Amino acid sequence: MYKSLLIFSLLIVFFACQSRTDSKSNKEENQNEQRVKLLPSFNKKQPTIQETKFKNFSKKLDKAIHFQSVILLKELMYDTIFESSDICGYPGCLKDEFFEFHFTKDLSGLEDWKKLKIIKEEGFSRIKIDEAIVNFKGITEVLQAPSFLKEMDLETEFFLLKDSTPLKSKPLQSSSTISYLNRGYYTCNCCNYSTGILTDKKDNTWIKTITNNGKVGYISFNSTSLSTIKYLTVGWINNEWKIFSWYSGEYCAKYD
């Protein structure tokens, strides 16, 4: 009988420990999911028209990106758009002026569309009005994409955009692959261009990183958030969602 009680007690302890371990693991996974997939949360006290119109706005933006249509994108723009090239001065360019320099029909314009597609796919997060890079009278709510930038230190972290990205042993495409990394946040010395970010003889850029299990290797710059440091800021104004900022992040200026 005592033996049976002992076995029963040990089983209870085992399952209790297992439950705590699973709970901790699930909690960590959930926290990571919440951090990666930050989406705008609409306050229930606010009119539901905001959420409905954001869904419509999102669909129109997808269509503009798919067809690379300046006409469709222009419909989603506010009267003035702040941009980081300082072409029009503060607080930004009028719509027609903006499209003279951005989303043009050259290689620079194609790069804008490419970045916008990635940014949109990564989702929006809600930010405070006073956290926006610029404020316009009448804007009462602000959303910003890509969502992964909200909680990231741009000097010490990058976000890996795709699953199964090769981690190279050297900053060379021909070097051996140490392992494959999935989407998520990774550490880097992102402002050090001698040891943290390196360029090979073919002008390919690599980021040195250390994984959680201690593996040191190099990730292609183009696979990371550092290739897409742009803020797309959207505001609720006059009962519509409008883009009012297309801005490069304030960090290491080399890649702005």
Architecture overview:
The chain is of the alpha+beta class. The chain has 2 domains: 49-151 and 229-255, Nuclear Transport Factor 2, Chain: A; 157-226, Roll (SH3 type barrels), CATH 2.30.30. It is built from 5 helices and 13 strands. A 6-stranded mixed sheet has the order 2-1-13-12-4-3. Strands 9-10-11 form a 3-stranded antiparallel sheet, with no helix packed on it. Strands 5-8 form a two-stranded antiparallel sheet. Strand 10 and strand 11 form a beta hairpin. Helix 2 (49-67) packs antiparallel against helix 5 (107-121). The longest helix has 35 residues, at 2-36.
Which short descriptors sum up this protein?
13 strands, 256 residues, alpha+beta, three-stranded antiparallel sheet, 2 domains, 25% strand, Nuclear Transport Factor 2, Chain: A, 5 helices
Output mean pLDDT.
80
Named CATH architecture of the largest domain: Roll
The biggest sheet amounts to: 6 strands, mixed
* Estimated radius of gyration: 23 Å
The name CATH uses for the topology of the largest domain is Nuclear Transport Factor 2, Chain: A
Total DSSP helices: 5
Provide the domain count: 2
**Series of H and E elements:** HHHEEHHEEEEEEEEEEE
Low-confidence stretches: 1-38
What helical percentage do the residues reach? Answer: 25-40%
N- to C-terminal distance: 74 Å
Strand order of the largest sheet: 2-1-13-12-4-3
Structural class: alpha+beta
Strand content: 25-35%
* Gross geometry: elongated
Q: How many extended strands?
A: 13
CATH class category label of the largest domain = Alpha Beta
